[in-house]
Amino acid sequence: MNIQFAPTDLPLSRRLQTASVLQWVFSFLGLAPSCIVLFFVLMFTRFWLISVLYACWWFVDWETPSKGGNRVHFLSNLRVWDYMRDYFPVKLVKTADLDPRQNYILGFHPHGILVAGAFTNFCTYATGFRKLFPGLDSFLLMLPLWFRAPFFRDYIMMAGLIPSDKESASYLLRRQGGGNAVVIAVGGAPEALDARPGAFTILLANKKGFVKLAMEHG
């Protein structure tokens, strides 16, 4: 397999788009392991107190991912996500108005390898979710194991990610006053195994939990 390098006259905007996607891919594939290693390495250095204090904070903050997380709007509004949006590109199309006084379950498909479309649309403001659906905050469900990684858990919570379990989704759907949109990959993580160009395979066998959840919470 030959490696083809980008031409030297490639516009700067395109290079920034590629860089934004690379940092995002690293966040999903490399940041969590790096944070785990950092947590334990610090324990054996003169900075051991950082890990100890974080461990205490982690104990106190253990239930936060299941209670809506700690979204930081500044992070979701960074310019870097605009470059990521333009790389693919990703577009959010509105087909109906949603009453912000209600809570919602939003399903997305396909899952893909790294959930690029859902992340760009619902974890960032690059495609205009807050302008298209004023009064609604979106929360993307992610595998719970990611919330067991020190430091990394705080980063993904700031982007509006919460564990993909019934308790986490129900907490937001029960909130009085509405304004919450829980975003679920209807086919689940196994759907990523069928991600290939031109294929849109949806897995619904034994994946009806989101329907039950919607019925339970109206």
From TrEMBL:
Per the record, the similarity remark reads:
Belongs to the diacylglycerol acyltransferase family.
Can you name one GO molecular function term for this protein?
diacylglycerol O-acyltransferase activity
Under the heading InterPro entries, the entry gives: DAGAT (IPR007130)
Q: Know the name of this protein?
A: Monoacylglycerol O-acyltransferase 2
Q: How does it sit in the membrane?
A: Multi-pass membrane protein
- Subcellular localization, as worded in the UniProt entry: Endoplasmic reticulum membrane
Q: Which organism is it from?
A: Hucho hucho (huchen)
* Gene Ontology CC: endoplasmic reticulum membrane
Q: Which UniProt keywords apply?
A: Acyltransferase, Endoplasmic reticulum, Lipid biosynthesis, Lipid metabolism, Membrane, Transferase, Transmembrane, Transmembrane helix
Q: Which residues cross the membrane?
A: 21-44
Its Gene Ontology biological processes? diacylglycerol biosynthetic process; triglyceride biosynthetic process
